[in-house]
Amino acid sequence: MTSTAPNPLAAAAAGFDAVWNGALDAIRAGSNVAEQLENMNGEALFRVLDELGAVQHAVEVLAARVTGAIALRPSPTGRDGSLVRAAGYANPGVMVSERWRVSRARGSAIAEVGAAITQPRGLLGELEECPFPDIAAALEATPAADDSSVSAETDGAGPAQAEAAGTVPAPLSVDGAAVIVRELRNAGRICATVELQAASVIAVEHAANAPLQDVVRIAKLIRTRLDQDGREPRDELLRRAERATLRELPSGMTLLRAELAPESAAFVRAGLDALIGAGLRRPSFVDADTAGDQPDGSGTPMPDGPSLIPTDRRRAIALTEIFRHTAGCSGAATELAPVSVVIRVDHDTLETGLGAATIDGIEEPIGAGALRRLAADANLIPMVLGGPSQVLDLGAGARLFTRGQKVALAERDGGCAWTGCTHPPSFTETHHITWWSHGGPTNLDNGILLCPFHHHRIHDDHWTITIQNGIPWFIPPSHIDRHQTPIRGGRIHLAASTKAPACPSTSSGTDTRTTLRQAR
Questions:
Q1: Minimal CA–CA distance to 70: which of 49, 50, 92, 54?
Q2: Region of 439 on the Ramachandran plot (φ > 0 left; ψ -120 to 50 alpha; else beta)
Q3: What CA–CA distance (Å, rounded) separates 89 from 197?
Q4: Among 8, 65, 113, 351, which one is most buried in terms of CB atoms within 10 A?
């Protein structure tokens, strides 16, 4: 008898088929894939790419469910425990890695999500609830024709979504779900299942439709709120695990590898970013006729333009300059350019010592004890923004944003505000949303941080920016998206009032920005 149950991938395949056929050129469709893609316009190519992502997501979610089912299946002989081990695999992650020919990390992520969304069976064979039902629900995509296709986040932010075609992306990706599950399981040693499930609700709410790097940061913050008493021991373990190795490679290059605790990495990252930023802003006097022959290090000014030298190479140059200066100057410690390490912490954490602080550019939170050590060991001076001595809104009389305004924008945007861009605040420029020459004021509501590349995109391609409730939205020009659907940017914040069920207690309070500046 033929089954009438729908194929789990049928909806994704139908959605892709509809988008593909709609993207074909009506006059010159093309006889093969290469010709068909060549004859599609730019907007159609983006639609095809998005729908391919939806198909891949559907495949990965189904793979996670299949892997979870295999992991729970007992061995046919009853001697090897599970079906996974009976087939010769050490664990489900290795099974996916070898059968799909992907990395072990990729296989482990799919297997971990599968275990989190698969319903186990009880002692009597009855189906029980899966460990993280909210994560399972967030992984499911919905048809675009559904009224739920319009995200609540875009309400009031601009035009409506594009007309129904294919599927709407699920709120959470498999990679994002794996990150959340891993961090929650790290706190599971002291938390009950109901507390972990409640925390997963908060994680899904904040991480919905967010770039993966934001999901990682949110998951770490929620894990820290769950395991507040465990922050201090974890900070100590991280400090003890610090390592730096030097090894000469067969190519003649020397490999420098450092594993640093968050409080140590904060100074390294801030110092390198400060030197790179100074290099980008420093005028260059390289002869244009011989610019191609100029070295890009060893005391020679860096060529202008962020695209000429990759960021990783700039970091290597900056690191070399630090040690060159140290080796040749007895007063290097005082003559190096001062840098700022920006840390944010809840008011209650400062008072009670419970909870955690976060450092700009570092995803792993630090405990209140590490924050106190930073202030004591490094001669740092705390400064609270927004006080009587700091003016954040200047109006239209001054064209340039002040340092205080830039730090406040860094708090809101987290670096380049363009969605998915990972450039830190030190790599960004302050852009007037309404141009100053057109009467735009120099205040926070009219300012936004953008890296040079995305700054040029705004000006050259005529993107529009709006700020709604402190959230920047980027509206593409009609030649990129005829519907001009707003795209959320900036940093996703875990609200201070959000109470993740802590184990044993959760601190809350007004979010206080603390800037720690290295003394000159």
A1: 92
A2: left
A3: 30
A4: 113
Cβ atoms within 10 Å, residue 59: 14
Distance CA 53, CA 209 (A): 13
In Å, what is the CA distance from 281 to each residue of 291, 303, 311?
Answer: 18, 11, 15
Closest to 440 measured CA to CA, from 393, 372, 475: 393
- For residues 370 and 262, the answer to whether their CB atoms sit within 8 Å is yes
Q: Which of 148-157, 217-226, 455-464, 479-488 has the lowest mean pLDDT?
A: 148-157
Beta bridge mates, 474: 465, 487
The beta strands (E) that lie in 310-354 are given as 340-346
The beta-carbon contacts of 36-42 under 8 Å, at least 24 apart in sequence, are 42/479, 42/480
Greater confidence (228 vs 420) lies with 420
Q: What share of the chain is helix, strand, coil (3-state, %, to 5)?
A: 45, 15, 40
Identity of the residue numbered 161: Q
* Helix (H/G/I), strand (E/B), else coil: 17: helix
- β-strand partners of 512: 345
